[in-house]
Structure formats: structure tokens, C-alpha cells
């Protein structure tokens, strides 16, 4: 009859879901040899109490004890050391699992189904702990507590600036992390604010091009100055239009293409460019419905974007544009897309150019498919 599979062989095979101390293997060996714990204690020079604690996993099996056991019971010291290391590793994993069980509610905060749909996460696993582990790996954090430390403070600041009440931390953090992953994969030169500022006319000229043409050129120009520009589809519930931040040595501009029109895209882009040029390394998140009119940095960024797209020497002529034909001619004269002019008119002259009037001049964008 074949011998039954022992605890020792089970543990070595790694198919237990609980921690087995090396003392269990030692107990089985003593039984096979007909040796008592007291006799072993005398031969290895330990107290009977210490041997008993060793067998029950209450004390570590040290390398010195492993060497002594090799001489007394004939099992190589490297096996004892491996069993002890495996035991400690398994104990750490089980402690981690117990800790994760306390954070099962975290899953409800995150857009898990959205990440599955985008093929970032695999299909639903059989247990919540596995899903939490996958999400921690996605965010590249050791624990849920660390995740909150990284994302809650900048998100809270962004939410305070917004009149929108249904923006949520989980979707926002997810969107930010997706951009971080893409930005880290982009090759960029060293950050050079002077070179970036010098490239502004070239970047502005891209506004007349279709998305499939301007996106790679925009990213190439900015990356040469140490700025990674990424376009990440908005995660439902985030209600975010853009963010600037520093990741490693890179400055990152991340845009959601929330409104999918060229006027909104280009205004957001140059708004974020100003934050980068202004040496603002803190994370600045732009939530839809922003009401931070008292924030001088945001006011400056808005004015910079507006003046870059339509310089002040031309802006005085906006009030005189009364037809779509005039808008097209003006846009062609100053070298920008007519949709950008329409967007400016709708904001500054809503009576003459109410919302929807002239929207057919705006180019619909889908930068996520280019």
C-alpha cells in the first residue's frame, strides 16, 4: 500500500492554504525515529521548552538550529532553512489576507467593471481578496491605506474647487493611474521650459489639423521638452477634464477628452501647458464645473490659454463677428481652427452666439482611436 501523503510532503508541495511550521516536519521525523522531544533537546543543546515551542511554531528555526538538526536527525540544514522561510512567508501572506478582508468595502468605491471592460483586469475572480490584490497591483501600492494617502488629498482639493457633487474618488484615482501607466511608458527628453515655450507657435498651429495628424505631432513636440501628453478616456464618475503633475523627471499632461470638441480640447491643453511652464509641480486636477475663480493660478492659466489661442491684438475683433462666414475667415487669418473661435464667442458673447449656434464649426474629436 502506498504511504499516505504526510504534512511534510504537502507543505513542500505548496498546496496548503494555511501555514505549517517547520516544527511539524520535525515532529513527524521524531515519531519516525522513535525519539522524544526531551531526547532531541539534549542532543542539540536546547531546553525541552524551546524544542516544544519550535515544534508548535512559536519560535523561529534559526540557521544555527538548522545546522544542529542536520547533525542529529540527518535532514540537511538547507531544507530546514527553506521550510522556515516558507512558513514565515505564508504567515505574512495570511496576515495580509486578513488585513485585506477588512477592506472588502473598497471594491465598491472602484470602477471594477470598467477596468474589466477595458481589459485592465481579468474577468471577475471567485473571491474578493483576489480582486483586491489585483487592484493593489494595478495601482502599484502595498495597501489600501497607502492608496488613500496617495489619492485622497489631491482629490479633496480638486473636489473643493468644483460645484459638482457626484465626482468620486475611486473613478478619479483610476483615471489618474491609467494616465500614469501610459506616461511612464513614454520616452521624453529632459524637461526644458524654454524649449517648451518656444514651441508654443508650433503647437498652436496644430489646431487646424485633424486629430489623427495633430496627436502624434503634439506628443512628439512636447516629449522633446520633457512633457508627456496622454489622452485617457474619462472613467465614469470622475468628471475630470485634465490634470498636470510630475512623475519622476517627467511633467505629465493628461486629458480626458470629456467634451470631445476641438475648442474644449485645445483650451484645456494650453491651460495645462501654463501650469507646466509656471513650474507648478503639484498635482492640479481640473474637475468639470470648476468654480475656483478665486484661485489666481487657475485664472492665470485660463487667460494664458485664451491669449495663446486668440492673441489680444486679435481678440478685440471678436465682437464684430456676426456670421459663420466671418468666423471662418477670421480663424483662417489668425491660423487656428474655427471651432476655437466659436467656443470663445459662446463664452464671451452668449447673446449673439448662444450655445449651439455655430457648433457645426467645431470639430468632433476622438483622440482615443487615432
UniProtKB/TrEMBL annotation:
Occurrences of domain HTH cro/C1-type (ranges): 26-80
Keywords attached to this entry: DNA-binding
Keyword DNA-binding among UniProt keywords: yes
Superkingdom of the source species: Bacteria
UniProt cross-references to Pfam families, sorted A to Z: HTH_3, Peptidase_M78
Keyword Chloroplast: no
Matches recorded under InterPro entries: Cro/C1-type_HTH, IrrE_HExxH, Lambda_DNA-bd_dom_sf, Toxin_antidote_HigA
Family designation: Belongs to the short-chain fatty acyl-CoA assimilation regulator (ScfR) family.
Protein name: Helix-turn-helix domain-containing protein
